[in-house]
Amino acid sequence: MKSIISEHFETNRIIIRNATSEDIGELRSICENWVDKKDIEGDLFDNNYIENCLSSGDLPPISCANKDYYRFKSICSKENSKIIGFFDIYHGYPTADTIWISILVIKSEIQHNGYGREVIEFISKEAKEKKYTSIGIGVHLKNWKGIRFWSINGFDKIKRISGDKNYSVNNFSIMFLEKSI
User: Fold this and answer.
1) Residues 39, 31: Cα–Cα separation, whole Å
2) Of 47, 8, 4, whose CA–CA distance to 24 is shortest?
3) Using one digit for the tens of pLDDT, what is the confidence trace for 162-176?
4) What is the pLDDT of residues 117-165, one digit of tens each?
5) 151: Cβ–Cβ under 8 A, 6 or more apart, which residues?
6) Nearest C-alpha neighbor of 136 from the set 122, 154, 116, 112
7) DSSP code string of 40-89
8) Is residue 4 classed as helix, strand or coil in its secondary structure?
9) What residue segments make up the domains of the chain, in order of their start?
10) Hey, what CATH topology would domain 8-180 get?
11) DSSP H or E segment with residue 120
12) How far apart, in whole angstroms, are the C-alpha atoms of residue 41 and residue 175?
């Protein structure tokens, strides 16, 4: 297994660090304020989502999944140290040379200010330094805002699409994208 990305990193405007139990309240608030999540993905966050990410990790569906390769990160503003978002990554999924981002959320009231782009630039730089060759994500097809974001940030290779075959309000599908680094 390749190296794990840094525990703590700073860009011009944000601090990226491992999430801790002290962050739970702020992280839950960010989850609760994602108003169209149910429309996009079909369900809301589980009540214990943040706690589960911190304790067990949101591991990929593979038999050899190991929490040692998982990181749950808080994104904080350098200006006031407040949490403005979070993401998680798994090192070595779906291939040994890939870092997988299963979620990236920025507070809804400060989206469209380049914070997500800064996070992707950080992950890309770190992953490349650690000799990974790609970053993978899954985005729900009804998440048009997310598809635009990932596409603009270089996730331009469609790996596959899975989910319901027919469209309806209650059906959902995910597109798996990859960015070469």
Assistant:
1) 14
2) 47
3) 988 888 888 889 999
4) 999 999 999 999 999 999 999 999 999 999 999 999 999 999 999 988 8
5) 177
6) 154
7) HHSS---TTHHHHHHHT----SSTT--GGGEEEEEEEETTT--EEEEEEE
8) coil
9) 8-180
10) Aminopeptidase (3.40.630)
11) helix 115-129
12) 12
Residues making up the chain, counted from first to last: 181
β-partners of residue 179 are: 135
AA identity, residue 42: G
CA-CA distance, 66 to 59, in Å (whole number)?
Answer: 7
- Which tokens belong to 25? 């309240």
- Give the E-state strand segments of the chain in sequence order: 8-10, 14-18, 70-77, 83-91, 98-106, 134-140, 157-163, 173-180
Task: Match 């911190």 to its residue by tokens.
Answer: 54
How big is the chain by its Cα radius of gyration, in Å? 16
Q: Which amino acid does the sequence have at 122?
A: F
For residue 60, CA distances in Å to 10, 51, 99, 141, 166 come to 27, 17, 11, 20, 26
51-93: per-residue pLDDT in tens? 999 999 999 999 999 999 999 999 999 999 999 999 999 999 9
Q: What is the pLDDT of residues 92-102, one digit of tens each?
A: 999 999 999 99
State the chain's mean pLDDT as an integer.
Answer: 94
